[in-house]
Amino acid sequence: LVWVLVLSLAWLGLAVGGEEEDGEVVAEEEEEGDDEVLSDELKEEDGVLVLHEHNFARALSEHQLLLVEFYAPWCGHCQRLAPAFAQAAAALRDESSPARLGKVDATAQTALASEFGITSYPTLKLFRDGNRTHPLAYTGHMDAKGIVRWMERRAGPSATLLQDADTAAAFVGSQDVVVVGFFKDLESEAAQVFYEVAGEVVDMTFGVAEAAEVFEAYGLSADTVCLFKKFDEGRTDFPVDPARGLDAAELTQLLRVHRLELVMEFTNETSDHIFGAKIPHHMLLFLNKSSSGQLALRDGFRAAAGTFRGKVLFVVVDVAGYGADVLPFFGLTPADAPTLRLVKMENNRKYQMDQDVFSDTAIRTFVQGVLDGKVKPRLLSAEPPEDWDTRPVKVLVGKTFEQVAYDETKNVFVKFYAPWCSHCQAMAAAWEELGERYKDREDIVIAELDATANELENITIHGFPTLHYFPAGPGRKMVEYKSNRDVETFSKFLENGGTLPEEPPAVPKTPENSTGREEPSPLGTAESRDEL
Fold first, then answer.
1. How far is CA 373 from each of CA 32, 367, 368, 369, 376, rounded to the nearest angstrom?
2. Amino acid 11: pLDDT
3. Active site (annotated) includes residue 226
4. 44-153: what CATH class?
5. pLDDT beneath 70: ranges in the chain
6. Does residue 78 carry a catalytic annotation?
7. C-alpha span between 233 and 246 (Å, rounded)
8. Annotated catalytic residue: which of 6, 279, 414, 421?
9. Annotated catalytic residue 421
10. Where in the chain is the domain with CATH 3.40.30.10?
């Protein structure tokens, strides 16, 4: 179920992440800990060093590479990361790696949290060679495999030196995708940028070559980055501009785009690459792979794909296989296959042909029309329940939203939610109570909209729950509510005309988190964390 939610939401512009539910935030003070005297002894839990103010310096001095997780005991993301973090620690230890993992309870070790600017949980930082002043932010996947890969890349050379043509040939043939940097001078600025990229892109294998015979073996005379792959065209070259050199971000994106097949199939193995490439549009062919007639439609789909490489990623989704569970997010059922949809990733706008035509010419024309802004998006809308406007909390859908939210005689407070969202579930009772409190007020409407089943033309929802207030009067105004999610604060907001009265800020003993919501973040990356 988790992959269904996350991978589907990647096409919705969302991902599971964000802050913790209300009520899990305030930790009880541990009185017995006040008198505990801590030494610089390094202790472990599940192979992970337990760090605090008194042993942190020792840990840095004894370990060349130390990845430290700053966490909060109440943080759900930290709790989910803990097993993977321990597995990664064990894997690195089994490999006799110089890399070690440690953890700091940032709610207890406030001096360390302040020193390293910890503003969200979990935050992972790499300390190298005892350097305490310039730790490196962790940028890998938040799973055991991702952590191990990221640390291995920093423990050893980020790219393998290919000293002769035979070594290079063996390296190129060793995996489905490899990247080789050909540089006349491995100390050059361009080569250093290449090493930097190799250190960050840990899901690809990198080599470097400077020997003349290796250049000659691959028909090169100038510095070039080559991506070798056992599919499609087999090799893609990125010549180094003598004047501009290499740009790390640009090279990273080029590699992520061209390491993909021209047409990807949406599977468990490819999903990370599909969303990780950050291609702004996805063109989707939904088909049933058990139908030979539908399989044949891939030919025209593939023929159209090359024109848009890097701008539009073409993806085949099997409605009877791995892709079956994402169909509701597109308003589809298996019976709708074969069909085409184009998704603009930044705002989840979905585009559909008036009538599906699967020729390469028709697909090219449709895609270009979307890119040129000549095709309007198709917005999903559920059907309104029969009693949608008689409940204390009005149930809005796409087709009824405008008439309610922009009613100039009413102040409308709307909760945009996802049925599976734990934060939404946690505040559901408060929202119902708010509806009861204002059900007899003619000028105030409390409403909710399932944002996974309904889309709005001018409003894009980036996290759950999102609360918007639409004040009465002309102008189609909208105010986002960002304060505490409890009935009394909601009421103050409403009674004050869509603002909260000024109050002196409270200073909590532990990081408060009553406005938490699930924010967009790449699956399994360091952005999945709880904000302070």
1. 64, 10, 9, 6, 7
2. 56
3. no
4. alpha beta
5. 1-37, 503-532
6. yes
7. 23
8. 421
9. yes
10. 44-153, 160-259, 263-372, 394-496
